[in-house]
Amino acid sequence: MHSDSPVLTESTTPSQVLRKAGAVISGGLGVLLLCLGLASSVLVGFVSSPGAAKKTTIRVVEQPAVQDYLVDEIVNELEDKANPIERLVLIFARSKIVSALHEVVEKPEIQNLVGDVAAEAYSVYVDNEAASEIDISPISSAVVEAVVGTDKRLRIAENLELDPITVTRNDNDFDFGGLRDSVQPGSWLLIVLGVLLQVAAWFLAVASPARKLQRLGIRTGIFGAVFVAATLVLGSQILGMAEDEVAVVESLVGIVTSPLLSRFAALTVLGIVVAGAGFFMQRKENASTAS
């Protein structure tokens, strides 16, 4: 006698349904936490220490758009302090001055000095070290030498000589150090939790190892691609809000988003490879069963 009623299999029992649901939730949440942990670790890595702050600052100063902005600001400062004759000289010598200043800001030693300034300021504001006096005279001296070297009549540049900067932190200033110290371990905690949830999803899943591998790769690839898209959209939104110095903002956005995109792209590729391995294993299993 033939019956049209479905046969109750092991995969349809309540315990198996709960395990499947647990695997889906654990797997999805795990990849989400992993992506968030990667993003936060990248962002905090830019300013995780005085050395990191120096490295980030040097990378910023290396950007052509930032160098153009700095040179323009210096020239504008000269024009503001110039008398009518000096302004006339500035008009005719502007291209030479701009070229000379670009040579200054492109020098590794000058960029390194700017990085040192950022590192010392970081030590005071973030690490709560004692007030620090930062000597920036080598930078201003290099600028003065470059400007005066183009035309001796531009002694006005000597007014750009700057006294050392004293960096102090007040008791009511925001506690950047506390924020950093909480975000850094939090980033690693998210990554560890993400990995542990993937392990839990693997053992909860009711499927063959090949199927588990496929699902792991698919969800990893999907979340990686989603975060790549989210990073691109966020960067585009920030650029869209920039009204002035768009080129500078674009350079800064690129510095921040580049490592994020590389990590999420790598995660996407890893997911594709893992899923492909799972499909390959499944095909071998099906072929051996058929034979």
Write the layout of secondary structure elements.
Elements: H1 14-45, H2 50-61, H3 64-81, H4 84-105, H5 108-125, E1 132-134, H6 137-150, E2 165-167, H7 176-204, H8 209-241, H9 246-290
Antiparallel strand pairs: 1-2
Portion of residues in beta strands equals under 5%
The arrangement of helices and strands along the chain is HHHHHEHEHHH
Structural class: mainly alpha
The strands making up the biggest β-sheet line up spatially as: 1-2
Q: Regions with pLDDT < 50 over 5+ consecutive residues?
A: 1-11
CA radius of gyration:
29 Å
Number of strands: 2
Notes on the structure:
- It is a single chain.
- The chain is mainly α and 291 residues long.
- The chain has helices at residues 14-45, 50-61, 64-81, 84-105, 108-125, 137-150, 176-204, 209-241, 246-290, and strands at residues 132-134, 165-167.
- It is elongated, with a radius of gyration of 29 Å.
- The two termini are 32 Å apart.
Short summary:
With 291 residues, this protein is an all-alpha fold.
Which short descriptors sum up this protein?
291 residues; mainly alpha; two-stranded antiparallel ribbon; 2 strands; elongated
